[in-house]
Amino acid sequence: MAGPSQKARIYVPPRSAMQSGKGRTHGWVLEFAPGEKQRLDPLMGWSGSGDTLGQVRLHFPTREEAVAYAESKGLTYEVEEPKPVRIKAKVYADNFRFGRAENWTH
Q1: Distance between CA 24 and CA 12 in Å, rounded?
Q2: CA-CA distances (angstroms) from residue 64 to 33, 69, 71?
Q3: How many CB atoms lie within 10 A of CB 90?
Q4: Torsions phi, psi of 14, nearest 5?
Q5: In the prediction, which pLDDT does 98 show?
Q6: What residues have CB less than 8 Å from 66, skipping those under 6 apart?
């Protein structure tokens, strides 16, 4: 699949802007770094390259499994630790709080 000089990135994908909770945010992704620069197609104007590994994303349930896979294939890899997610609880009563800074939306 990939040569030993191929560089990989292992990370936890961020949740989408449409998600408010932690659902489906577990798991690690191994993604290959671009092997060559993208070039512009003169006829259609689309950008592309001959590097097919740029399209490959491997999903693993744990960080250890992703690292073990990269090491078994002889890949150089970089692990990006996830940032802690803090979800602030919203209270309906805060809409009517005295001295609130936000505009009234009702």
Answers
A1: 11
A2: 20, 9, 10
A3: 9
A4: -70, 155
A5: 82
A6: 10, 28, 29, 30, 58, 60, 79
Cα separation, 9 vs 5, in Å, equals 13
**pLDDT at residue 86 greater than cutoff 90:** no
Rounded CA gap, 40 and 30, in Å? Answer: 27
What share of the chain in percent tops pLDDT 70? 85
Beta bridge partners of 29: 11, 59
Q: What is the pTM of this model?
A: 0.64
The pLDDT of residue 104 is above 70: no
Q: What domains appear along the chain, each with residue ranges and CATH number?
A: 7-14+25-33+51-99 (3.30.160.190)
Phi and psi for 55 in degrees, rounded to 5?
Answer: -95, -5
44-60: buried (b, 16+ CB within 10 Å) or exposed (e) per residue? Answer: eeeeeeeeeebeeebeb
Give the model confidence (pLDDT) of 5-53 as tens digits: 679 999 998 877 776 666 666 789 999 988 788 888 888 888 888 788 8
Separation CA 34–CA 49 (nearest Å): 9
